[in-house]
From TrEMBL:
This is Glyoxylate reductase. The active site is at 241, 270, 288 (proton donor). The lineage of its organism: Archaea, Methanobacteriati, Methanobacteriota, Thermococci, Thermococcales. The gene is gyaR. NADP(+) binds at residues 158-161, 181-182, 184, 217, 239-241, 265, 288-291. GO terms for cellular component: cytosol.
C-alpha cells in the first residue's frame, strides 16, 4: 500500500500530481482552513502531512497521529511547528526556501515604493471621483512622497530574501546597510553592503525592510524604543512575520509621526483586522502575499513533493529543517 499524505489546503496541482505517483493523497479542498478538530481526526491514519503556517502542529497533533513520520511545511518559515517535539519523536520537518525568494523580494519593493509614493492613496483619490470633484489637474504640492533613488536602505535579516532585496536596491543606486546574526563577507563584497548593529541601521536608514524569521529573539524586535530611533521621514516594510513588529507601537509611530509610512504584508494574527491601523492612510497593507505568484507557489508545491518523495525513498529530504532527527530515525516509512 502507498503511504498516506494529508494536504491541509489545496496546493497547485503540479505538486499534487507528483505526490499521487507515490502516495495516497487526501486534500482539504475547502477555501477556509481546516478546523482543528477535523485535523486531529484526519491525522489518525496519515504517514505524512503537508501543512501551512496558519496551522499549529504541536504535541496534540503528534499524539493524534501515531503513524506520522514527516511534516512538509508549505512555507519558508516553520514557527507553527514544535520542532523540538517533532525531533524527539523522530518526525522529519521540511520547508520551502529559495523558490519564493524573488517573489517575496519583489513584493517588499512593491510595498516600499507604494508607501513612499502614495500609490494606494492616489489610486483611491482617482477612482473615488475626488480628483474630478476638486477640478485640479495638477498641483506642485499634490501627493508629495519620498525619493527612493540614491537613499539608504537598511535590511534586517540578510538571508536569501534579504540579499535579494539588496540586489534590487543596487539598481536604485542606494546605500545598503544590513544587520544579521553574523556578518556575510561575500555578500558585502558582491552587493556593496555595510554591516551595522540594529540601532545604528535604524538611525541611518531612509527605508527599513524586515526579512528575519520569527524567533524568541526577533519577537517584537521593532518596538517603541526602536521605532523612535528611526527618521521621521523613514518607511518601514515588513515581509518577515507579523510578530516581529509591536503593532500597537507601530500605530503610535504612524499616527504621531515618529516615522513617515509603513508597508505590511504580515500581521501579528492572520487573518487580521485592526480598525485603528486600517484607518491610517500612511500604511499600505497586503494579505500575506509575498510568495503569491504562479511561479513561486508552483515551485513551493514541487519542493514539498520532492521532500516527501525523497523521504519515502529512504533519502534525506533536500530542505530538512531539523537535521538532529537523523540521529533519532532514518528516513523512510
Amino acid at each position: 500500500m502507498k503511504p498516506k499524505v494529508l494536504i491541509t489546503r489545496a496546493i497547485p496541482e503540479n505538486g499534487i500530481e507528483l505526490l499521487r505517483e507515490h502516495f495516497e493523497v487526501e486534500v482539504w479542498e475547502h477555501e477556509h482552513e481546516i478546523p482543528r478538530e477535523v485535523l486531529l481526526e484526519k491525522v489518525k491514519d496519515v504517514d505524512a502531512l503537508v501543512t501551512m503556517l496558519s496551522e499549529k502542529i504541536d504535541r496534540e497533533v503528534f499524539d493524534a497521529a501515531p503513524r506520522l513520520r514527516i511534516v512538509a511545511n508549505y512555507a519558508v518559515g516553520y514557527d507553527n511547528i514544535d520542532i523540538e517535539e517533532a525531533t524527539k519523536r523522530g518526525i522529519y520537518v521540511t520547508n520551502t526556501p529559495d523558490v519564493l525568494t524573488d517573489a517575496t523580494a519583489d513584493l517588499a519593493w512593491a510595498l516600499l515604493l507604494a508607501a513612499a509614493r502614495h500609490v494606494v492613496k492616489g489610486d483611491k483619490f482617482v477612482r473615488s471621483g475626488e480628483w474630478k470633484r476638486r477640478g485640479i489637474a495638477w498641483h506642485p504640492k499634490m501627493f508629495l512622497g519620498y525619493d527612493v533613488y540614491g537613499k539608504t536602505i537598511g535590511i534586517v535579516g540578510f538571508g536569501r530574501i534579504g540579499q535579494a532585496i539588496a540586489k534590487r536596491a543596487k539598481g536604485f543606486g542606494m546605500r545598503i546597510l544590513y544587520t544579521a546574526r553574523s556578518r556575510k563577507p561575500e555578500a558585502e563584497k558582491e552587493l556593496g553592503a555595510e554591516f551595522k548593529p540594529l540601532e545604528e541601521l535604524l538611525r541611518e536608514s531612509d527605508f527599513v525592510v524586515l526579512a528575519v524569521p520569527l524567533t524568541k529573539e526577533t519577537y517584537h524586535m521593532i518596538n517603541e524604543e526602536r521605532l523612535r530611533l528611526m527618521k521621521p521621514t523613514a518607511v518601514l516594510v515588513n515581509v518577515a512575520r507579523g510578530k516581529v513588529v509591536d503593532t500597537k507601537a507601530l500605530i503610535r509611530a504612524l499616527k504621531e509621526g515618529w516615522i513617515a509610512a509603513a508597508g505590511l504584508d504580515v500581521f501579528e494574527e492572520e487573518p487580521y483586522y485592526d480598525e485603528e491601523l486600517f484607518a491610517l492612510d500612511n500604511v499600505v497593507l497586503t494579505p500575506h502575499i509575498g510568495s503569491a505568484t504562479f511561479g513561486a507557489r508552483e515551485g513551493m508545491a514541487e519542493l514539498v513533493a520532492k521532500n516527501l518523495i525523497a523521504f519515502k525513498n529512504g533519502e534525506v529530504p533536500p530542505t530538512l529543517v531539523n537535521r538532529e532527527v537523523l540521529k533519532v530515525r532514518r528516513p523512510g516509512f
